[in-house]
Write a structure and sequence with these properties.
The protein is an alpha/beta fold and 224 residues long. It has helices at 12-23, 41-52, 98-113, 135-148, 150-153, 170-179, 203-215; strands spanning 3-7, 27-34, 57-62, 117-119, 160-162. It has one domain: Rossmann fold, CATH 3.40.50.620. 36% of the residues lie in helices and 11% in strands. Strands 3-2-1-4-5 form a 5-stranded parallel sheet, sandwiched between helices. Strand 2 (27-34), helix 2 and strand 3 form a beta-alpha-beta unit. Helix 1 packs across helix 6. The chain is globular and about 50 Å long. The N and C termini lie far apart (42 Å). The relative contact order is 0.18.
């Protein structure tokens, strides 16, 4: 059976991506990251969903928070933006080079275990404006990966980066996940949860609320 590395944060998008990869028949190797994020409760939910969807392995990589300390997601002295979603600006929850670092670990992991797919739940429609979620970023990374990997250079092995959510609206992502058995009460998207419960006011919570409203499904999110 073919193998796929799935970048799994424990949020709505990445868990849906996990379910999609599983539905396509891949052996799942889930990869999560602890980079000092305030919403570290997501890592517990990542473990839950990796187990639920039968991952062969789930690894959590510990990163040094100081490399990402300029973000309000990691700096306890900075307040996460609330009730002021602005799709035209890059918010202070942007984490420096986050997807580049995550994908680099995923590439190494995939080449090591012989996986030919990497799944990442980036989205460029209903999202918070992060530059490393755009199609042009993913395409540039794909080209770099072909130049960087031994197997690709030798023409023996190629790893593709799968982005099944990149052009979907949040409501479409939720509808897809529900059809594949995702329990969204076991995911967290909130940037600043309180005792594991969503604040309901950060950019991510606002987008998630709108997504559930448009999808027609009941909002399963556990709010404060």
């Amino acid at each position: 059976m073919a193998k796929a590395v799935v970048l799994l944060s424990g949020g709505l998008d990445s868990t849906t991506c996990l379910a999609i990869a599983k539905s396509r028949g891949y052996q799942i190797y889930a990869l999560s990251f602890d980079y000092g994020q305030k919403h570290s409760v997501e890592l517990e939910l990542a473990r839950f969903n990796a187990g639920k969807f039968g991952a062969e392995e789930h690894r959590t990589v510990k990163l040094d928070r100081e490399f990402f300390s300029s973000s309000s997601l990691t700096d306890s002295s900075k307040q996460v933006r609330k009730d002021s979603y602005d799709e035209k600006s890059i918010p202070d929850t942007y984490v420096p080079a986050r997807n580049t670092i995550f994908l680099s670990y995923a590439l190494a992991y995939a080449e090591t275990i012989g996986a030919d797919k990497i799944y990442i739940g980036v989205n460029s429609v209903d999202y918070s404006g992060y530059p490393d979620c755009r199609p042009e970023y993913i395409e540039a990374y794909r080209k770099m990966a072909e130049l960087a990997l031994k197997g690709s250079v030798e023409g023996k092995f190629k790893i593709s980066i799968e982005t099944p959510l990149i052009s979907l609206k949040k409501a479409e992502i939720i509808t897809t996940g529900k059809k594949l058995g995702v329990d969204y009460s076991k995911t967290v998207s909130c940037y600043e949860p309180v005792l594991g419960k969503a604040c309901g006011h950060c950019d991510s919570c606002i987008l998630r609320k709108k997504g559930f409203e448009a999808s027609g499904y009941k909002d399963e999110t556990v709010y404060v």
